[in-house]
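Propose amino acids for all 321 sites.
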């Protein structure tokens, strides 16, 4: 979703020469590009295939095929070649193949960025693709870019984990200052939140930085806005679930009473979900015992009080659950 929303920025960031030739006003996402994986006989879906027109006013179209990988696989180059062949047979257009790796493990041996078919000394097929591994790049260097996608992807790049609290603050500081709409900014923030989990000490460091230094002022405000939006989404989801549950109960105990009870349960569950979400954002980890305790709360008043308390709590033990 992130690369789809920031497709132009992705190409400009990693393939600037190709980006200079593409008319990004012509972007068309091709959905459900699948092929049969022979001889295994199972279907595989391609992650992202985009059709674009080249600059110059011509009618030439090309495809940009991007695969996202969270781990190294020995058979991956062969699969990329298979994808390429299938796409070319289906569309008959030139293809720019890209693989984006986001894994954190050390590679003892680098994965080939191509696949060759040889018989004896003859090479009959020489396929190449762009292999982009985020861990190969320096996060600090990418924070000096003017590309908003760089600020989020830097969270998966190489940097010292000694001061991860400050690094996260810097990722979010750059995102808070970039010129993107709220929906796209939310995707960037969510990526950073997902891939920079902090322990209690690191979280304290992070909170201290964004509160003490004025250049991080926007970060605190931005986080508060997205936390509120997350709470609203959780409540809406809970209300919908409650309505459905109430409708089902209504068949047995009366539609009106069932809907009323279902709506109440939906509101309570929405507040439980919102509280757990706030706790995870604030403290990074909520153990199973505390999660069960939250799920057992049936009082709207207590849940409201906890939703307010979590904002000022320094650690999870400060909450009277």
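Proposal:
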């Amino acid at each position: 979703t992130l690369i789809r929303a920031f497709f132009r920025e992705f190409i400009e960031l990693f393939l600037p020469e190709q980006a200079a030739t593409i008319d990004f006003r012509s972007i068309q996402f091709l959905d459900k590009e699948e092929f049969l994986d022979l001889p295994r006989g199972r279907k595989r879906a391609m992650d992202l295939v985009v059709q674009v027109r080249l600059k110059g006013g011509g009618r030439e179209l090309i495809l940009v095929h991007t695969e996202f990988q969270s781990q190294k696989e020995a058979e991956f180059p062969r699969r990329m070649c298979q994808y390429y062949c299938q796409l070319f047979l289906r569309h008959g257009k030139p293809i720019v193949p890209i693989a984006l790796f986001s894994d954190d493990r050390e590679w003892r041996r680098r994965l080939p960025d191509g696949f060759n078919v040889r018989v004896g000394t003859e090479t009959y097929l020489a396929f190449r693709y762009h292999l982009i591994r985020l861990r190969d790049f320096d996060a600090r260097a990418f924070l000096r870019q003017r590309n908003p996608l760089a600020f989020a992807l830097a969270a998966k790049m190489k940097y010292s984990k000694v001061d991860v609290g400050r690094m996260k603050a810097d990722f979010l500081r750059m995102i808070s200052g970039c010129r993107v709409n709220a929906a796209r900014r939310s995707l960037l923030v969510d990526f950073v939140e997902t891939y920079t989990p902090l322990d209690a000490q690191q979280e304290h460091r992070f909170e201290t930085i964004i509160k003490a230094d004025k250049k991080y002022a926007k970060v605190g405000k931005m986080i508060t806005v997205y936390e509120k939006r997350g709470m609203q989404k959780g409540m809406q989801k809970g209300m919908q679930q409650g309505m459905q549950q109430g409708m089902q109960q209504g068949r047995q105990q009366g539609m009106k009473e069932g809907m009323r009870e279902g709506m109440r349960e939906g509101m309570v569950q929405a507040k439980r979900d919102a509280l757990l979400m706030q706790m995870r954002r604030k403290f990074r980890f909520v153990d199973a015992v505390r999660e069960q305790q939250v799920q057992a709360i049936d009082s709207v008043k207590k849940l409201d009080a906890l939703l307010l308390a979590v904002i000022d709590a320094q650690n999870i033990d400060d909450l009277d659950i």
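Residues 119 and 251 are 70 Å apart (CA to CA). The longest strand covers residues 22-30.
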